[in-house]
Amino acid sequence: MAALPIPYRTTKDQPTFFNLDDANGCTCPAPHGRTFPTALDPLYCNRYEIRDFAKKVHALDIKYIGVCCGAAPMHIREVAEAIGRKVPASRYREKMSNHFMYGTNERIPEHISGYGDKA
C-alpha cells in the first residue's frame, strides 16, 4: 500500500486540486477563472499538516509514503523526519529559538524580540 497525496487542502466538495477554488477573498484571481494549474499557491498544505499525515499513515503500517504533484523540498523532508529519518535537508529545519522576534536566543536584543508581541 502507498500514500502519495497532493499537498493541497482539498475538501469533500472539491476532492481534487483540479477543481479547488480560492474563495478566501483572492484579490487577483487567475485569468482563466480557476486555480489549477497556475494559482494553487495559497491552497498548499503546510509542513506541519504533511508531517501529521505522514505520521498517521506510517502508524497504519504504510511503508511507501511521499508527496505527489506540487511537493516542495520541505514536504519531502517532513515525511522523512516523521518516520524517523534524518536526511541532509534536516539541517535546514527552522530553529525558532533564533527567530528575530519570537526567538529565545540570548543574542537577540530585547528591543527587537519585544516586537513579537506587537507585530
TrEMBL record:
- GO-annotated molecular function: betaine-homocysteine S-methyltransferase activity
InterPro entries named in the record: BHMT (IPR051524), HCY_dom_sf (IPR036589)
Report the transmembrane regions from the record: none
Any one Gene Ontology biological process term? Answer: methionine biosynthetic process
Recorded hits in PANTHER family, A to Z, give: BETAINE--HOMOCYSTEINE S-METHYLTRANSFERASE 1, HCY-BINDING DOMAIN-CONTAINING PROTEIN
Q: What is the name listed in the Swiss-Prot or TrEMBL entry for this protein?
A: Hcy-binding domain-containing protein
Tell me which species this is from.
marine metagenome
Taxonomic lineage of this organism?
A: unclassified sequences, metagenomes, ecological metagenomes
